[in-house]
Automatic annotation (TrEMBL), chain A:
Pfam families: RRS1
Subcellular location: Nucleus
Top-rank lineage group of the source organism: Eukaryota
Gene field: RRS1
GO cellular component, one term: preribosome, large subunit precursor
Protein name per Swiss-Prot or TrEMBL: Ribosome biogenesis regulatory protein
Main subcellular location: nucleus
Organism encoding this protein: Leptonychotes weddellii
Single GO BP term: ribosomal large subunit biogenesis
Annotated Basic residues bias: 308-331, 357-371
Automatic annotation (TrEMBL), chain B:
Gene this chain is encoded by: RPF2
Cellular localization per UniProt: Nucleus, Nucleolus
Keyword Nucleotide-binding: no
Ranges for region Disordered: 237-273
Taxonomic source organism: Leptonychotes weddellii
Name of this protein: Ribosome production factor 2 homolog
Amino acid sequence: MSSGGAMEGQSVEELLAKAERDEAEKLQRITVHKELELEFDLGNLLASDRNPPTGLRRAGPTPEAELQALARDNTQLLINQLWQLPTERVEEALVARLPEPTTRLPREKPVPRPRPLTRWQQFARLKGIRPKKKTNLVWDEVSGQWRRRWGYQRARDDTKEWLIEVPGGADPSEDQFAKRIQAKKERVAKNELNRLRNLARAHKMQLPSAAGMHPTGHQSKEELGRAMQVAKVSTASVGRFQERLPKEKAPRGSGKKRKFQPLFGDFAAEKKSQLELLRVMKSKKPQLDVTRATNKQMREEDQEEAAKRRKMSQKGKRKGGRQGPGGKRKGVPPSQGGKRKAGLGSKMNSGPLPLGGKRKGGQHHGGKRRK
Amino acid sequence: MLIKGGNANSMVTQVLKDVYALKKPYGVLYKKKNITRPFEDQTSLEFFSKKSDCSLFMFGSHNKKRPNNLVIGRMYDYHVLDMIELGIEKFVSLKDIKNSKCPEGTKPMLIFAGDDFDVTEDYRRLKSLLIDFFRGPTVPNIRLAGLEYVLHFTALNGKIYFRSYKLLLKKSGCRTPRIELEEMGPSLDLVLRRTHLASDDLYKLSMKMPKALKPKKKKNVSHDTFGTTYGRIHMQKQDLSKLQTRKMKGLKKRPAERITEDQEKKSKRIKKN
């Protein structure tokens, strides 16, 4: 018995040894010997080999074959690691679940800043209210089943009741169902408004101007003032002909904002403007802005004409219109001829633009100074 | 984004086209030449990145002083973070290697070989930049049969050899297949030229992770230098009289003995009082 046992033991040992040898052979095909272990980052499918590339140094100018061999070894090790990950079957394909990438890489965009708390969150924090854990489903007596607490087909939906008693003090001909539906619509609208306001606060966006303009009865003095200003300006003439109340003061700070150039931007432009300024200051002859001069001239002429007309009409009324419109025509040329320069006479045809280029033109000497 | 400089020659354009092919559909290749110098003036690059919303870029140019130049870089918040200039010494294009290619959009495997990649700061940044550039989108799962190609970077004698191989999975005795490689894609021999690395604090700022993404630290668990994990358990105060010990039947008190003990205890108490 013992000898038989020994023989059996031997054959078992032999079998075991053979199995081990087979395993080793199989593994040999996929094992790679490296002095230093590679570092793996499987989330990025990355492997780093720290071994000094001694084999390659001997290779010479075209180390293609050696590079390929090195790459094959490294890839084999990486694949070995990847095949050890937990796998699952998704639509007939074997899929491995990758871990998180461990290499820290710099971000593309800065970290988003924390959102400001919503109004409810601020209030809850102030009062110390903590969220109560509630169940999702509630027993509904009416339908005899478990229904959601809120949402589609909720448990106690007061708009879906088929019978509503008219409450004691209400008008009997009032539609209670419509009243409930209306109340729900108002609640939904209010909720949406609050949500948008919270969002706008989070993104610091400009709230559209109609946000504070609806009369709620709880508006502060500033809000009312703002609403009034906006209402004044929202006419076809942008508020130019809106009269003010007898003791109302003009609003301050509602003028145009002045825009300034950035402190250091375009150096070339700054240099140019500074040199131009110096040149103008140094020049003996005064500069003449033809556009402004002509506009001023035209305005003065119009004013004089209007004054003349008024005088004529008054005189005419008193003296029975003796001079009449003829006086007007005579009056116009001589009074303006003295003030007009020869160069400006051409303003009717060509306008101030072609003349604008030559500021120191000989036609204007001692002309109108720029104020 | 892949941009051509004012004097890009055919080799550099071909390199950009190949990299674009590797990085489809996440890249944008600009067809026109742009006369800018990344190392002198970064405003045009920042403008491009803002317009196309790309933070990684590659700029190719060629002149007598720097032949076959490739500038690879990345941005943080639309400002240039790192820029590294590489010179292309040898280039074999995708179409010169007559092999079958892998489908576009596959996530490549990246392998860095050579100890140079950890020695100098320049090489370390280059490694991080190459990882950032060539890794695909981060995915939670990957189909094992879909691992098709591998990009291999070797740093040797001051040169960086960039090779790409297609993967062939062969049968081996066990579950993990044996790998055979076939050269597929562009192969480049690169030399490191100038670098423009971000200052330390800008780099730190760009590496900042929001609190939600930081790995959660497990409380009461600590690690030793040797790798042993130590844990701390907090227990409530135990009532040792109610402790469950091993029961040995032989030592169990028999009922007669228990009665006598009780009587003794009672008499002791009476005596004390």
